[in-house]
Specification:
Helix content is 81%, strand content 0%. With 111 residues, it is an all-alpha fold.
Length: 111
């Protein structure tokens, strides 16, 4: 498959998923455990995810968006190991999205 097509597919997937994640946190779908553990910081995370979702879809900002998503997933992994319960499904998703963000970063990084 063409590199450009793969890049667009991965970008759109990440963009839609993180737009959904951010919207869920903004509109009350964040778990009570998350709100209790992270407090108002949940809204900062939601904004970060929405901004990253938009940036990862726009070709000129795709590298920055992929970095933002990678950082969000590293933060999610740390949060799940420290203050949130360890849910294998959530951990697997975080690792998968971290890998996809890394692939996008590698594909678009200009040396």
């Amino acid at each position: 498959m063409n590199k450009k097509i793969i890049s667009w597919v991965l970008s759109v997937i990440l963009g839609l998923v993180f737009l959904m994640f951010g919207a869920m946190k903004f509109f009350g779908e964040a778990t009570d455990e998350m709100k209790t553990a992270l407090g108002v910081f949940v809204y900062f995370i939601a904004a970060w995810e929405v901004i990253a979702a938009v940036m990862v879809v726009v070709p000129k900002t795709r590298v920055i968006g992929s970095i933002m998503i990678g950082l969000a997933m590293i933060g999610a992994l740390i949060a799940h190991f420290t203050v949130l319960s360890i849910d294998p499904t959530m951990m697997g998703m975080a690792v998968a999205f971290l890998v996809i963000a890394g692939v996008l970063f590698k594909m678009h990084w200009k040396k």
